[in-house]
Write a structure and sequence with these properties.
Elements: H1 8-11, E1 32-38, E2 49-55, E3 65-70, E4 79-84, E5 95-100, E6 103-104, E7 113-116, E8 124-133, E9 136-146
Antiparallel strand pairs: 1-2, 3-4, 4-7, 5-6, 5-8, 8-9
């Protein structure tokens, strides 16, 4: 996805240092090309010379998608949470935070699955997953899941006589 330089003003900005700050770049644009000109004076060679370079506009990530929340088989105090990574990552490594009823589970997650533990049986929880990178939090995705009820204990069953 190549584009021309953002403006003629940038081409003729008169930058004399070896670095500068570019403004007006759009996030989600990973192949943004500019022309860089230079003159070598006193070495018998004069410019301008051109080269192409890419600039990546970093940003916070988008929201995770496809959130699934379900109790694992045989457990009444856990919820399994899975999701798909956001399509827009902000071009930086992602981590996730998972909340059950607005309580952070104290674990930074680097993949797309988590287990919420030590929950109350037969209780509905609102689960929120937040993707973030070094620039900050992205959007979150929210869903609901219910833990399984406790199985009745053997001592609470009465014998049936015929």
């Amino acid at each position: 996805n190549e584009t021309d330089p953002p403006s003629d003003a940038m081409k003729r900005s008169g930058i004399t240092d070896t670095s500068t700050t570019l403004t007006g770049l759009q996030s989600n644009t990973t192949n943004y090309y500019v022309w860089v000109a230079a003159e070598i004076l006193g070495a018998g060679v004069q410019g301008p010379y051109s080269m192409r370079t890419s600039i990546i506009a970093y940003s916070v990530p988008g929201a995770p998608t496809n959130l699934m929340i379900s109790p694992p088989s045989g457990s009444c105090d856990q919820l399994m949470v899975t999701w798909t990574a956001p399509s827009h990552t902000g071009e930086l490594p992602l981590k996730y935070r998972v909340y059950g009823n607005d309580t952070f589970n104290d674990t930074l997650i680097y993949n797309t699955t988590a287990t919420l533990s030590d929950l109350t049986a037969n209780t509905q929880y609102t689960v929120r997953v937040v993707a973030f990178n070094e620039l900050g939090d992205g959007e979150n995705v929210t869903g609901r899941g219910r833990t399984r009820p406790k199985a009745p204990s053997i001592s609470s069953l009465s014998a049936i006589s015929s």
